[in-house]
Amino acid sequence: MMLQRWRSNPISFIETVLHDPETKKPFKLLPAERAFLEHAFKRDDEDRLCYPEQVYSGPKKSGKTTFAGIHTLTTLLLFGGSYPEATICANDQEQCVGRVFTIIRRIIESSPLLKREAKITQDRITFPAFDATITAIPSNFATAAGGNQNISVFDELWAFTSERSRRLWDELV
Question: What is the DSSP pairing of strand 124-127 with strand 149-154?
Fold first, then answer.
């Protein structure tokens, strides 16, 4: 099965299935991205990811947003299990839809295998065959609590300052 092969080598999934919206060709990961993902996707004896909480950081204009999209799609589709969910959080609705969510949408639209399987709306992407969902929410959106997120991406985490944002962070991780 292809899914099992990609789970055992997620980098192969990224560099085969996920296409760069700018070049329309499969991504080629940078050495630092490759090293992070090799460590991030290690699994334990029960086949669960060893590191349920992960943080990736880099300097401005280093491709963090695109990498967040790559990481989100890979985690959701390969390691999400039943009814996987991804939540993209940012400081306001414009930012949460305008950055990470947009790059995820662009990656899907540029990737022939994913494009056929995805249903895309303004703030939600679903993969019906996987029962998978990606949702964009602002940091003050209270209904994310109690969800079943497999991955939550916080764009511009440094700017999450309100008590409400901190509670959202605590409930999502």
Answer: unpaired
Query: Residue 131 corresponds to which tokens in the numbers above?
Result: 């029962």
pLDDT < 70 regions, the chain: 1, 91-98, 139-148, 155-173
CA gap 18, 42 in Å, rounded: 20
| Confidence (pTM) | 0.84
- Report CA-CA distances (Å) from 107 to 55, 103, 143, 159, 166: 21, 6, 27, 26, 30
Could you give the CA distance from residue 54 to residue 42 in angstroms, rounded to a whole number?
12
What are the pLDDT digits (tens) for 49-96?
898 888 887 778 888 889 999 999 999 999 988 899 998 887 655 655
pLDDT score of 105: 96
Closest CA to 40 of 26, 24, 56: 56
**Alpha-helical runs (H) found in the chain:** 2-8, 10-16, 31-40, 64-79, 93-98, 100-110, 112-115, 163-172
CB 44 within 8 A of CB 100: no
Burial class (CB in 10 A: 0-12, 13-18, 19+), 103: buried
pLDDT at 65: 87
